[in-house]
Amino acid sequence: MRIGGSTGSPHTPRTHRHGDRPTAEPERAADRAGCAADTVTIGVSIPVPEPHGSLLQDSRAGFGDPLARCIPTHITLLPPTEVAGDALPAIDAHLRRVAEEGKPFDLRLEGTGTFRPVSPVVFVRVAEGAEGCSRLQEAVRSGPLRRELHFPYHPHVTVAHDIAEAAMDRAFEELADYRGAFLVEAFSLYRHGEDGVWRPVRHYAFA
Q1: Pick from 206, 203, 199, 202: nearest CA to 183
Q2: In terms of Cα–Cα distance, which of 43, 72, 68, 57 is closest to 163?
Q3: Of 91, 132, 148, 171, which shows the fewest CB atoms inside 10 Å?
Q4: Which residue intervals make up region (Disordered) (predicted)?
């Protein structure tokens, strides 16, 4: 997905009307990873619900991003992570506990940002709900999923990645006035398929 990669970036991104904390786009790492037969690549994310999910995915496809249909619209909690296949039951139990202890929170998307020139990414900003995302990703990234991030966590929704500069500019401008809000009531575990598609494995609703 850009379910995955690292969730930080070594630079301050350019944003639409606002300054954001740095991050890096989470997806290409898993695209390049060659997993051993006894490992799988997973990610954990907040799925962006309808109508926002389809609208942003269609927009991403319209900008010419070849991965648009392989990656459900999401906000990353755990970047692409290789795990042993026999660890999945423990991971499932861990995520169920996280969901049981979690609470729904409001999330608002507003405007665009970019990590260029360091990382070729344009995204829609999380204008409200970033703290809820941060708390949730810290809980997810613990126990059997404990791992360090290279850069500070920064929630966002990718709408263009590693495409022509003109198309990146168009994504930045055309979605600059985008607004969308929803209640985060669950998160999902995804698995990266051999065909390059990220698919949800299980959804975890908050108690």
Answers
A1: 206
A2: 68
A3: 148
A4: 1-34
The β-bridge relationship of strands 186-192 and 39-47 is antiparallel
> pLDDT, tens digit, for every residue of 6-36?
344 333 344 443 334 333 344 444 444 444 4
Residue with tokens 């861990």: 94
Complete DSSP assignment for 41-108: EEEEEEEPPTTHHHHHHHHHHHTT-TTTTTS-SEEEEEEEEEEEGGGHHHHHHHHHHHHHH---EEEE
pLDDT in tens, 81-132: 999 999 999 999 999 999 999 999 999 999 999 988 888 999 999 999 999 9
Phi, psi of 174 (to 5 degrees): -70, -25
Distance CA 163, CA 121 (A): 9
- Tracing tokens 């997973």 back to the chain, one arrives at 42
Structure tokens of 154? 């920064």
Cβ count within 10 A of residue 97: 14
* Rg of the chain (C-alpha set): 16
DSSP state of 117: T
CA distance 144 to 95: 10
pTM for the whole thing?
A: 0.82
- Could you give the domains of the chain? 14-205 (3.90.1140.10)
Beta-bridge mates of residue 121: 161
